[in-house]
Hints:
- Strands 1, 2, 3, 4, 5, 6 and 7 form a seven-stranded mixed beta sheet that branches. This protein has a five-stranded parallel beta sheet with strand order 9-8-10-13-14. Strands 11-12 form a two-stranded antiparallel ribbon.
- Helix 8 packs parallel to helix 9 and helix 9 runs antiparallel to helix 11.
- It has 16 helices and 14 strands.
- 18% of the residues are buried.
- The protein is α/β, with parallel strands linked by helices.
- The longest helix is centred in the first third of the chain and has 88 residues.
- The radius of gyration is 46 Å and the shape is flat.
Amino acid sequence: MSAATLRWNDWPLTRKSLAVVALPLLLLLAALVAIYSVERQNIAAENDVRQTLEVLSDLYEAHALLAETAAGVRGYRLVRQDAFLTPYRDAEPRLQTVVQRLAQRITDPLQAQRFARIQPLFAEKMQGWRRLLAPELSREEEIRQLSEGKVKLDILRAELRELRNYETAQLQVRTAKAQALRQRNLLITLCAAMLGGLGAVFAVAWFASSLSRRLRVLSANADRLGEGLPLAPQLRTGDELGQVAQRLDQASTLLAARAAEAQSARREAEAANRAKTEFLSRSSHELRTPLNAILGYAQVLEMDLPGAAQRGQLQHILGAGRHLLGLITELLDIARIESDQLDLSPQPVPVRAAIEEALGLVAPEAKTRGIALQPLQIPPAWTVRADPQRLRQVLINLLSNAIKFNRPGGDVRVSAERQGEFLGIAVHDQGHGLSAEQVQRLFTPFERLGAERSAIEGTGLGLALSKRLTEAMGGRIVVESSPEGSRFWIALPLDRPADAPAPHPAIAATAAGDGQRSVLSVEDNPSNQALIRTLAERRPHWRLHEAATLAQARAQLQQARPDLILLDLHLSDGNGEDLLRQLREQPHTAAIPVVVVSADATPATLARVQGDNVRAYLTKPLDVAEFFTVLDRHLA
């Protein structure tokens, strides 16, 4: 192998790539210089074409505006109607603007001289039109002005025609020049692309073939490395591929050693996992078995012993035993969650039923402590996907804490609301609240935040377990606290959306009553007004009057008094609340019932429009059944 070949093999791939593409790059660079030069000429030619087109457009526009102004003035002088002056008043300022623009855009010396010669004629012509519009103009003066104006107008038209012809000829010449430059630029670009492309293809093909051979060897060795087989010999080079080959050799040696270590570690992990599973099972059995006897016999003794004092003593045994049982259960649950051995059975769970069940279980404790459980305001159709037993366990933990840490005589309230694809269930209490530092430590196992020094029972595991159970069911738990109380949220995935309300039956047309009823609809949106009109057609005894603005509504109210007003609050010429105030202030309109139909359903708006004459507030989109129910009631 020659010295040049050895040096080439040791070059980095970046340097090799640059050397391979150097010649095509030089060819492309030269071509780019040529293309840039021609492109500048092309841009200049296209600018000339564009400027010529702009001048032609202004010339045509000036010619047309002359005709419009002349026609408007003559029409006015003939029939004396102001309608003929509208085109003139619109065209005259535009004509002045076009004349000024032409004076700036015409750069050809001959054209500029010609336009400078006729430019005063425009001012004279416009001055003549203004004289013709003078009301005191005599007939003889009118004839003289029309005659002189005709001569000047003909001159202007002839000069503008000559200007257009010249610019049209120039446009053809400049367009041909621009096309020739574009074709030459295209030819140079194609030649440069072919030369550069062929050179690049040849160089890259040669370079890629050598890389491909080496990469195939590396790929085969990588496969052999994954299978644990010895590597095939390959070319020793100092570039990046050679370094990869060296790394593969080193990795082969390391993987062989680590494979043996991993096998040993796997066996140890499997043994440890089996030991943990066995420990959990044995701990549960060994701890619960004696507690079963303790609690069982204590309860038997409680039933058999007649003395109240002795029963009170047994209550200490029962309380301590149940406390220990709860502690064992929560500890084992946390251990199962951390070892990923907690069995969950997710299924659709009706939220209201689950909360009612949990409230029933904590009701005795709440009664004992004097805490009021507020009634539920939760739709029965809401359903979450969760494990029913674990959800009940979480709810009981949260409710029990809300009862234990509440104020004397306080309330506990449970609410729910949709949060996107989740349903949030909140437990509210009226306790003394938590500090930010306490909230940070709230979900730590065995952390009671100082309650261990009080008479409040607990283990400090309930919230930690609730957090882990909620997260294991695909949800999250959040706490919000203030001096007025705390609110614990659990958000769980919705199993399915709430059942859609049954569609309203079709509203059939009714027969006319004893007399016609007039309805004034004040609505500025045409589609909304059309809907009200369509609905009114289903009541033949309704006579619908329409107003698109407050002004139209006031005008109609002055002419007749409707039996009912349908009022939108946001109109094009003002706010419907102004009309409501006017109706209340005038004795003959104060008793007209008003039904507000608006897309604004904010509480503040509802409070403002309440009054004797506002009988209902319907929000858009309209509920058709409700619409007919309200209007039928007030128009009966």
